[in-house]
Amino acid sequence: MFKFLKTTEPIYGNGAIYFDYAGVGIVQVNASHVAMVNTFLDRQVFERYEVLSEPFYLDYESLLEALQPFRFDDELEIVFDFSQDSIDVKISVEHGNKKTYFWQSDELLDGEVTSLPELSGLDNSFELENEDIRLLTKYNSECLRFQTLSEHGLKVSTDKDDRQPTDYQVYMEILIESESVKELKQNARSLYASDYLRNISKTFNKTQTFSIVYGDDYPTQVNFERENGAISGFYYIAPRIESR
Questions:
Q1: pLDDT tens digits, one per residue of 77-134
Q2: What is the tens place of the pLDDT at every residue in 174-215?
């Protein structure tokens, strides 16, 4: 879990992490409400996982702060102990001899984690390799465009944001033929900021495959699975609305 938390830090920033009987979840809505993230780690990911209390919620950045002294490859044992107005966290790790660290926080979140809305109107679905996303976001393109090509499939291409002109533009496109598209119900095109897709791409290796759904000038939902489905989640990214 530690490695996953650290690698998702550039995407999530502030957020909430919750622990329940089924596993661990992370929910984040960024300040501008352009990107929303929901990730779940099934309990089978952990060598040992027990929740003996009601499900509870922690501040994401506070937990990352507690984990700062440790390395990616450390095998950590983390125990949460609640008092009336704070939470004690005991973190044990073996570095030759077993060492134990204590951390206390009053950043326990009250209530439930904000649930992300279910999107309707996402009529087009396709799969895209992370290696392709890395190529598309490698240069200075501000946006990526998803566009259906009628019965011929769809096109993912770089594009510029007319509100933020640049001196030059590297154009790249990937054509996805109709037989490779999972679902294609309507002609649609939408424009999305490259930065969010670039940050998502950095979290995964280049062989990761994303299932992407989108609609006409509508948010896109980028779905992923790892560890044979034990880790799963999705991102919502709001579109850049264009004048046509």
A1: 888 877 666 677 788 877 666 677 777 766 555 545 556 666 766 678 888 999 999 9
A2: 888 776 677 776 678 889 988 888 888 888 888 999 999 888
Let me know if residue 170 belongs to a domain.
yes
Residue 115: CB atoms within 10 Å: 8
The domain of 99 spans 2-105
Q: Would 182 be classed as within a structural domain?
A: yes
Answer whether 153's CB lies under 8 Å from 178's CB. yes
Q: Are residues 97 and 128 in the same domain?
A: no
| Residue 25 CB neighbours (<10 A) | 18
Which stretch of DSSP H or E encloses residue 4? Answer: helix 2-12
User: Could you tell me which residues come within 8 angstroms of residue 103 by beta carbon, excluding any fewer than 6 positions away?
Assistant: 66, 88, 89, 91
What is the pTM (predicted TM-score) of this model?
A: 0.78
CA triple 82-84-88, angle to 5 deg: 30
Total domains, the chain:
2
